[in-house]
Write a structure and sequence with these properties.
Blueprint lengths: L1 E5 L5 E5 L18 E4 L2 E5 L6 E5 L7 H14 L6 H8 L3 E10 L5 E10 L7 E7 L5 H17 L5 E7 L8 H17 L8 E5 L5 H14 L26 H13 L3 H7 L9 E5 L3 H12 L3 E7 L2 E4 L6 H11 L9 E3 L2 H5 L5 E4 L18 E3 L8 H9 L3 E3 L1 H4 L2 H15 L8 H19 L5 H8 L4 H26 L5 H20 L4
Helix pairs in contact: 1-3, 1-17, 2-17, 3-17, 4-5, 6-8, 6-13, 6-16, 13-16, 16-17
Length: 528
């Protein structure tokens, strides 16, 4: 059924049968020319006595991803002692900007593009979150992703509110010229409504976008704000040539590696799963060879893990003895598919790969990859959520009931926003992290080594001396700070899980995030 509600009085006016076209349905007690909200969209009323003449922009039902995020929040919020009103404030999305704008395609025709930017929480500013290009982008999706960003930033101690953006285009089939025109116009629309800026809202790459799109955003913002002191701090994930930071490209995947490393270091937790501690020798299946999936798998491979399965668009490969990971990557980069790669087992359906035996399963693609339909067939002992929302609420319950440890996305993929924070700080200070102290550290090492050589009567050869005394580079600061962030955050998260008797790590993560955001709101108070 369609419930029709007057947007001015919020009174229910009529209930239309679900199988009745709203274009011919008569609705009583409606003033001519009024607009009405329904649970299926916005209805426009004709000048006549209450006849509905059009359905404008139908609103789809809440996505399962959005519902999962809400359910996770509610379950964790019920374990807190905060009043309902404060929890509503923490949960609600503060601002959503829906945009339609014209862009010329490569043939000179006008195309109307739909975009979104959601700012979930202003308890900390600026807001922070990626921009994705996909035909599947919806308002529900960006709101749910923005909510995750709020709790994620709180969990790892970043001074941001959560945000997310999306543009409804296909980046794979779009030309570079069309992507540039869309990116610049989208940025201009955000500037007009003050939905972007170093102190307001700082986007970053996400699915379907990368360094090039972030460069276009930065350049457009700078052109429209020529008096801005920190224009390049308006966006992160930029190329190094436009004041990006080393390590940002692999940051999310590296954060996944650090998070998994912390998780498998706890002997009692691993004993419960029938595993030993450490990464070496662990069998791993990765879904997705994009930026996150590739780097996570590569760091694990270099640490001694066996990559036994890889799933990608168009199929998957599996070998219990371990795949030739560099060979798989080379094949995929050349052919953009896993088809034709010689492995013990090949699957036309990539989802089948996720159900093969392994110690660690890393879904690093999109949302809702593990649901009630396939969660019962997952054979991994640890599911490490490198993507946002790869396990839905029902699937998560099934995995937990089966004793599978889920490392939640709320924590595990925070590496990207953490290094984005470093880039933002660098852009605000207008100096790289190594410039102010690398030389001093190197000189200190030289003096110390010279003193040791004088006391021992022994000396290092020039090559050894250069290695020992070399000052840190900016990438060294980035990796060290990211490692510390992921380690400290996991220890806090695990402590809440154990000491407060939480049902799982995800509930503990939401509890921790909610607590930090709620405390911030309480400190600020309510204005006026």
């Amino acid at each position: 059924m369609v419930v029709v509600v007057d947007v001015e009085t919020t009174a229910q006016i009529a209930v239309l049968p679900a199988n009745t076209s709203p274009k011919i349905q008569e609705t009583p007690r409606v003033k001519p020319g009024r607009f009405l909200c329904t649970n299926e969209g916005l209805l426009a009323i004709s000048p006549g006595p209450g006849r509905v003449i059009a359905m404008i922009d139908p609103v789809p039902a809440r996505s399962s991803f959005h519902q999962s995020v809400s359910k996770y929040f509610d379950r964790a919020a019920a374990l807190t002692n905060y009043p309902p009103g404060l929890l509503d404030q923490v949960k609600s999305c503060d601002s959503v900007y829906r945009i339609k704008f014209p862009v010329k395609d490569d043939d000179g025709n006008t195309v109307v593009v739909v975009g979104y930017r959601a700012q979930h929480s202003h308890h900390r500013l600026p807001c922070k979150g990626g921009i994705r290009f996909s035909l599947d982008v919806t308002q529900d999706e960006v709101v749910a992703l923005a909510a995750l960003m709020t709790y994620k930033c709180a969990l790892v101690g970043l001074p941001f509110g959560g945000a997310k953006g999306g543009v409804c285009i296909d980046p794979r089939s779009s030309s570079p010229g069309f992507r540039e025109r869309v990116t610049r116009r989208y940025t201009a629309e955000l500037v007009k409504k003050m939905f972007i800026g170093p102190a307001v809202d700082v986007p970053a790459p996400d699915y379907g976008t990368g360094e090039q799109e972030m460069a276009w955003i930065a350049d457009t913002y700078r052109a429209m704000n020529f008096n801005e002191l920190h224009p390049y701090a308006c966006v992160t994930g930029k190329p190094l040539e436009l004041h990006g930071i080393p390590g940002r490209r692999e940051a999310t995947g590296l954060g996944v590696f650090f998070g998994i490393r912390e998780c498998v270091s706890h002997e009692d937790d691993m004993a419960d799963l029938g595993l030993t501690t450490g990464i070496e020798g662990k069998s791993v299946i990765v879904q997705g060879l994009g930026n996150v999936g590739f780097h996570a798998a590569n760091f694990l491979y270099e640490a001694g893990a066996r990559i036994v399965g890889i799933a990608e668009l168009g199929g998957g490969v599996y070998d219990a003895a371990g795949l030739d990971f560099p060979g798989v990557v080379a094949h995929f980069n050349e052919h953009r598919t896993l088809a034709g790669f010689q492995a013990a087992r090949q699957f036309e359906n990539p989802s089948t790969t996720l159900e093969m035996p392994c110690d660690i399963l890393i879904p690093a693609a999109l949302e809702n990859q593990i649901t009630a339909q396939n969660a019962g067939r997952i054979q991994a002992k640890i599911v490490a959520e490198a993507a946002n929302g790869p396990v839905d609420f029902e699937g998560d319950d099934i995995l937990t009931d089966r004793g599978i440890l889920v490392i939640p996305d709320l924590y595990l993929n925070a590496g990207g926003v953490t290094v984005s924070y470093f880039e933002w700080l660098k852009n605000l200070s207008h100096v790289s992290f190594d410039r102010m102290n690398s030389g001093y550290i190197e000189s200190s090492k030289e003096r110390m080594l010279t003193a040791i050589e004088g006391l021992t009567g022994k000396s290092l050869d020039p090559i050894q001396r250069a290695l020992v005394t070399a000052g840190p580079k900016e990438i060294d600061f980035v990796k060290s700070a990211l490692s510390d962030t992921m380690a400290l955050s996991y220890h806090k998260l695990r402590d809440i899980w154990k000491t407060k008797d939480m049902p799982d790590l995800r509930t503990a993560a939401f509890y921790f995030g909610i607590d930090r955001v709620a405390r911030s709101h309480m400190a600020h108070g309510v204005f006026p």
